[in-house]
Design a protein that fits this description.
By secondary structure, this protein is of the alpha+beta class. It has 2 domains: 38 residues, no CATH class; 82 residues, no CATH class. The chain is built from 5 helices and 4 strands, in the order βαβαββααα.
């Protein structure tokens, strides 16, 4: 992934420099700082995370096939399958890092029926979440 671009401006080059310096001079924690060396840095927006649209159908198909073939090996608690991100990655034939990134970005969310601090997934919920990404 390419590095996020950023632009840096010297505050003295801006027309509003006087107002900014005046406002910052009022802060007691900046008493020992040189107000003529202020720089303004702006970072480029990151694109919204997403899963490639053409891959979603393939991921859903692999997930459903993997679950139906291996559900007898998955532990159950109170009638719920204890499916982890490791299972999802294995069944969708992708890396755990990809699945973890999707979870971190909010593209896939753990089941609301998770127990204790552990995060488990419901296959139907994951399929619905993947289908929402396709829209």
């Amino acid at each position: 992934m390419p590095r996020q671009k950023q632009l840096t401006f010297h505050i003295q080059d801006l027309r509003c420099a006087g107002h900014i310096v005046e406002e910052l001079s009022k802060l007691p924690q900046l008493d020992n700082f040189d107000m003529s060396s202020i720089e303004l840095t702006i970072k480029e927006n990151k694109p919204a995370p997403k899963i490639i649209r053409k891959d979603i159908d393939m991921l859903i198909d692999r997930l459903q096939r993997g679950f139906s073939a291996n559900k007898h090996t998955v532990m159950q608690l109170n009638g719920y399958y204890l499916i982890t991100n490791v299972h999802l990655a294995k069944w969708m034939r992708t890396t755990q890092a990809s699945v973890n990134k999707w979870i971190k970005d909010g593209l896939i969310k753990p089941s609301k029926n998770s127990f204790t601090n552990l995060k488990f997934f419901d296959i139907d919920e994951v399929v619905d979440q993947l289908r929402k990404q396709k829209q």
